[in-house]
Amino acid sequence: MLREDTLLHGRSSGKTARFSVRPISALAITLASAVLALFLIDAGITARAQAATTPMGEVKQVMGVALPVLRDRQTPLLQRRRQLRGMLEGHFDFPDMARIALGYHWRQLNPNQRAEFSQLFTAFIENAYLSKIQDYSGQDVVVTSQNSEGPGFARVRTHVVQQGKQPINVDYLLRQMGDDWKIYDVTVDNISIIANYRNQFNRVINDQGFAKLMSDMRLKQQELQSSLGS
Known about the structure:
Elements: E1 8-9, E2 18-19, H1 26-37, H2 44-48, H3 55-71, H4 77-85, H5 94-102, H6 111-130, E3 141-148, E4 153-160, E5 168-177, E6 180-188, E7 191-192, H7 193-208, H8 210-228
Antiparallel strand pairs: 1-2, 3-4, 4-5, 5-6, 6-7
Helix pairs in contact: 5-6, 5-7, 6-8, 7-8
């Protein structure tokens, strides 16, 4: 079960900040983590042979390849994580996600600080979600619609089917980059995961400074890396 210590948690104190995903429910984030992992698999010839795919088409194609991997309990977990990690950056716009996650603080950083934060944030996101793929328990994901969010931007709406419960709505926000579409945010029941990070990052920076945030993220990253066994 995905717990609150995936992201930043804690206010100004001498203790290391912890990373949480509140106020999103633990179940919703666990499922979102699994759905996020759908984009970690390279869609291979089927997806990449087509230039300028639609956002919805991209989502459907990747799901078609990734769901069997997530459901595969015969392949060792570590091997599946490594397989997923290899294709992560092909589907997410991590530089933009890092910028959004820092909000107005991004403008206060020099180029070296931005590059360092982007690199650490990327590794942190990868490991945070790879550490949770084992929580996926076979739920189906249905792609329901695609909407324009302005020129070069789109939202793909999906929902995670739960046996005997209301489905969980998971939306993917994408931006067009050449012939590709890349994800820059995910919402779970209308709560933005990146905004959730931003609120916590801003609190640490405002209370204790950017250096403290970086120190806490490095520590958490080391813990995640160790737990992944890689």
